[in-house]
Amino acid sequence: MHIHAYERFWIVLMTVVLAVFLGAVVYAAYGMGIQVPTDAGQVSPDQLASAPPFNEPGVKDLGGGFYQVVMLASAFQFEPGEITVPAGSDVEFVLTSRDVIHGFRVPGTTINAMVMPGQVTRILYRFDEPGEYTFMCHEYCGTGHHVMSGRIVVTAQ
Amino acid sequence: MTRANAAGSLSPDIPYVPAGSRRIILAYLTLAMVALALGGLVGPFQALNSIGVNLYDYLPVTSYYHGLTLHGVLLVLVWTTFFIAGFLSLVTIHGFQRPLSSRGLERLAFWSMTLGLLVAAVPILLNRATVLFTAYPPLRAHPAFYIGLALVVIGTWLLSANVFLTYRDWRRENPGKRTPLIAFGAMVTLAMWDLASLGIAVEFVALLIPWSLGLVEGTNVLLARSLFWFTGHPIVYFWLLPTYLSWYFMMPKQVGGKLFSESLARLAFLLFIPMSLPVGFHHQYTDPGVPTSWKLVHAFFTFVVFFPSALTMFTVLASLETGGRARGGKGAVGWFFRLPWKDPSVTAQLLAMILFALGGISGLINASYNLNLSVHNTLWVVGHFHLTVGTAVTLSFMGITYWLIPYLTGRALYSPGMARLQAWLWFIGMALMGRGQHWLGILDAPRRTMLSDAPYYAAEWLTPSYLVAAGGIVLTVSGFLYLLNMALTAWASRVPAQVEVPMAEPLQDEAAMPVALDRLRPWVVGSAILTAAAWVPMLWYMTVAHPWTIRGFTMW
Question: Which of A33, A46, B347, B465 is surrounded by the fewest CB atoms within 10 Å?
């Protein structure tokens, strides 16, 4: 099979470029700990009233700067819709949906996940600076999708 | 190729293509253009909505999302699939120099797709299927929506069966001959699609149709979504491979050049069969219920599928360069400007390639696992696929019709000047809109969202939104000029067409090309094994471990 010298060079170059990019992504995942959501278990949307932690949506202070936010998404709101945590907190978000697929995006952070009926979404994030964040649903969930949003207030310690 | 008959009207005499096949091919292309017209019409309303101008009251749609469903289904599913069915039929017939093997199968494929389209169109138009083209359960559409789309997929299988039967007949009479390049391209496209479409077929037939009919109470949401993406990424190559077919095997002829490397062209095509499939989880990086290890495996293969696209970039550019130099072009880039930019078919496809390079790069960012967290479900992704399917594919398909419609009707293109203007306007419109959408995505504006009424609309979104709105208006003008030119060609052109099917010759006669580069079976078998390894364990886990009890909702 005839391969032109320039094309040989191009093939090697592209292979190296793609390998470097992929290497950077893997390093960011395991060296810097920037991970995407994983399998965090299943829960039936019909039994949320009796399935911990979803029977008690809200913010829980676990002590030592750790907080757990249990959140339920449904058309077209988040429950709770407003969260307050102190700066420097490590926050674990645990979410599921009561009805259709929703999204959970906090602009300005790496928080970006889908929220599905039947599935548990778990996200870890550390809020270092005080300030205010908006979060919104970013998966089409019906005619009121664009109003589905909420607020995170990070207070100064 | 064309003769005027006694009555003075033009009647084409196309080699190898029976009159019945010609009518079917023209019908596929006409339906594709009707879809482009209706789906495209919604576009400017969306583009203007992002700057807070909400004109939906003037459209006969119920909501922003009703319009968005029409836009997505008609453009990414109908325009592409019907164009491809018509184009690949002609390419197969012309490549093998014989009619399709079965007239009956040819008609059945057409009517299955057309009936499916009509069946699905009714609930979509009546706002009974406002689930967008991704149709994620548990949003539940009217059963006719899923049944209609399943019929369209079945129609594509019937078409591909006919193409493979035609190959079998040709091979019997031509043992030892190399498959003609354009027919080879059509076969690779359809072999890849047959494997890829199994996901959506199982999703619709086994899960969503019985569930929407009420035969079962609940469904398995993540399994359905994963089956959707099993098909949903390779469907991109179902659109791109016919585009590549034109870029590799037709355009070199149109620009007066030769195909730079036949063996690498064939290799790139064949690599898309295995590499298109084990990649779907890169659409689900942010999903719960899928372990990160499997997401990373699919990330790896997504990077691998860039490899045949990189081969394509080299070979296509090198082939074009042979044409530019043959036309007297000099220097490192001078040949590019010597290409026949007067030919609107060439202009459209060259401009499509330029924006495809940018769309490919933004796709690499989408594919980058954790980097995807910064753009997932934002308008960035919308920018990406408006440059890829919306430009690389759509503008190339438009460019192809600039010779294909004259070829099929025997009537010369009504206005080549209008066609060139149209191609440039599409390029400018998409460049503006794509820039605006990528920018909005970086600023975290969510996609598929009625931004005019969003309480969290950020002030910094306004400037890029103006780019989107401006681009949308330019694109509307371009789309109108395209359809006008097509209509005038079909109904008002009185000049006989002087066109042929462009078929590129290889630069060198590669007598020693490995025989594996002219065989599909080993590639299809290997792809099936790789696909099973990359999908079956997770799909099985979802089937047995994830809830099947999720009820459906109508949220519109």
Answer: A33
pLDDT of residue B212: 98
Which residues on neighbouring strands pair with residue B246, listed in sequence order?
none
Q: Which domain holds residue B388?
A: 13-545
Contacts of A140 in chain B (CB under 8 A): 65, 68, 132, 139, 448-449
DSSP code at position B281: G
Using CB atoms, pick whichever of B220, B286, B456 lies closest to residue A37: B286
- CATH number for the segment(s) A45-155: 2.60.40.420
Nearest Cα to Cα of residue A156 among A90, A96, A87, A109: A87
Q: Which two tokens stand for residue A126?
A: 């550390």
Q: Give buried/exposed letters for A32-71 (b at 16+ CB in 10 A, else e).
A: eebbbbbbbebbebbebeeeeebeebebeeeeeeebbbbb
Q: How far is CA B386 from CA B46, B71, B187, B234, B362, in A?
A: 13, 12, 27, 17, 11
- Indicate whether this complex's ipTM tops 0.90: yes
> What pTM was estimated for this model as a whole?
0.96
Tell whether B96 is covered by a domain: yes
Interface contacts A/B by beta carbons within 8 Å: 209
Q: Is position B2 within any domain?
A: no
B-interface mutation test, from A35, A36, A147, A151, most B Cβ less than 10 A away: A36
Query: Residue B7 pLDDT > 60, yes or no?
Result: no
Tokens of B537: 């364990």
Question: B307 and chain A: CB distance < 8 Å anywhere?
Answer: yes
Contact in structure between A101 and A119 (CB atoms under 8 Å):
no
Domain ranges of chain A: 1-35, 45-155
CATH number for the domain harbouring residue B244: 1.20.210.10
Domain membership of residue B1 (yes or no) is no
What's the number of CA atoms in the CB half-sphere (13 Å) around residue A34? 17
Number of domains in chain B: 1
